[in-house]
Hints:
The chain is α/β, with parallel strands linked by helices. It has a single domain, classed as phage-related protein like fold, CATH 3.90.1690.10. Strands 1, 2, 5, 13, 14 and 15 form a 6-stranded mixed beta sheet that branches. A 6-stranded mixed beta sheet has the order 7-6-16-12-8-9. Strands 3-4 form a two-stranded antiparallel sheet. The longest helix has 28 residues. The chain is globular. It starts with 8 loop residues before the first strand and ends in a 6-residue tail after the last strand.
Amino acid sequence: xxxxxxxxxxxxxxxxxxxxxxxxxxxxxxxxxxxxxxxxxxxxxxxxxxxxxxxxxxxxxxxxxxxxxxxxxxxxxxxxxxxxxxxxxxxxxxxxxxxxxxxxxxxxxxxxxxxxxxxxxxxxxxxxxxxxxxxxxxxxxxxxxxxxxxxxxxxxxxxxxxxxxxxxxxxxxxxxxxxxxxxxxxxxxxxxxxxxxxxxxxxxxxxxxxxxxxxxxxxxxxxxxxxxxxxxxxxxxxxxxxxxxxxxxxxxxxxxxxxxxxxxxxxxxxxxxxxxxxxxxxxxxxxxxxxxxxxxxxxxxxxxxxxxxxxxxxxxxxxxxxxxxxxxxxxxxxxx
Length: 336
């Protein structure tokens, strides 16, 4: 039998802001950074796509006396987005609150619990939708020897050149679209290898004593936005504490640790922006404070259960906007 809820659920500005701080601070998640956030006011709708060919022709001509200028135009295509609402609830019983030594911590723990799970959901959507073969116009594969078309020498080989490879892929995207890729997502194992790759070590050993950080990698690859996808999630089904006090643990990377993604993400997008991936955040679903995914933390009182409840709601839809603005790089560390 369902419990009935008494009282209203109200957005909590403090807890939503705390949730937003978690989203901003935890760099292991990539979905928010590797997509362009576009706020929308409806659950579903259309957006414009402009074929780049119209904008990259040289058609200017000298105007003849008494004549009109050459007339040019452009075409517009349309695509659709759809935002879904994802929601979670956590309950704090009055007895739990009364027995807590730091009662305010319970509210923050509830926010962290709900936010972390929502971040996992967003990253899993991003990874299963975009971080794989068969999605983008260009996919390249690492091989242990003798690379051919759309292949490259595995970065596990000391003779490989990650800097040259990235520049080649950037140039292919730039030559086909006019846009400079600005976002690079590294699998965890790829980042670990790059820290010890001879090309990186040799570049800095005579000029700096600093370690090879993500910022150093970004500068060397000449990308504005570098993210290392280190987020884990628990694939095990929950079990009772009497069976396993941990609740059951089987941790797995959300994003393939041996792959990469390179593309252009508009840092300040609109509905007309060129970008590889867009997150359409339905941020008017719940009035009040909101985060990158149209989310809000609310709290309410269930008088019949003598408990406070916390809701996390976020509404968004992720969409590939352009096949040609990204490349997926797989088997980066292939060995014979």
